[in-house]
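G., the chain you wanted modeled:
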Amino acid sequence: MSNSGREPPQLDGRGGNELAPEAGHPYSTVIFRLSFCPRSDIENTVYYRLYTKNNPVESKNPIYSNDRCISRILVKSVAPPRNIGSLKKHLWKIEDLDGTPTNTLYLSLSEKAPANDLTHLQLKGGPSPGSSELDPMALVVESPKLRKKLAAGSKVDSKTLPEWPHEHRYVYYRVYEEAGEVSSKTSFDETDLSLGRVTGLSVPPPHSGASLEACLIQAEKIPSQNVKLFKDDGGENILNHNEVLDLFSDNYPGVLLDDPIAIVHGPKKQEHASEPEPHSFSKRLRANQDSARQGEIFQTDGILTRKRYYMDAWRKQAFISKDMYETALSKDLCTFI
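Predicted structure as tokens:
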């Protein structure tokens, strides 16, 4: 098998392509991969996923066409000393983020607390954090400005990338308002529109009732802050914010299609028109009184008066009676419109 004219898949965070198998050789993709990727590179790869506090975001360097939130780098691309701090700086750079890194890094999606910046990374010699795409590290970006920049996504063409080869695990749920069920924005069954689902990988760490609730609020674009999460659609058990979820097991709320969790939210907040500010000026005006100020109230006796509109010296619209017109012009106090 000749290697001439072929380039190895990128493992340095640039979203490499997988090579197509040769005709008649169903395992030729695997053979090519082993031929072109040195074992040291395969073993010293760090996989990571990108998140905000509410949802996953696309990497600038995706490696799968149907899961663009995961990427990878080579250990050797991280500057010594290879600790959490230097790894975060490198990920910050290759994701094209500006300024000082403001993020947290979890060594695993199942971790309940972020890693300390001074923690040394054991990235060689056996299993290490991020060595598996099934259990990658997680970079959670906290700055709203940078979250907006990440939301723009990558320009890498999905057609040049392979598909995620693993089966997705889902969290199934139903959506309700206080008045009853509503259609889910992640609905996948035309006969049951209130039933939705998100992948377990879309829930940001740490995996808890709070992070799952935040993920569902984002997925459903729920405007109300009055939200309750139940472990089942019977509503007998509330899913507390501090409850730990093992989304990599076979036993977590919403793991079964026939036993979804339920999210119930209140009505959309109504925007009330602001009440007019009270005015302190309420006395009657004489016809020859000085010009009124902005916000003052004119009270009349109800008698119809012929009038013309003028601009006063402060460029405010005003009016004067006909018999005052000549006097006003002579004193150059008003400009005729």
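Residues 287-337 form one domain.

Shout if anything looks off.
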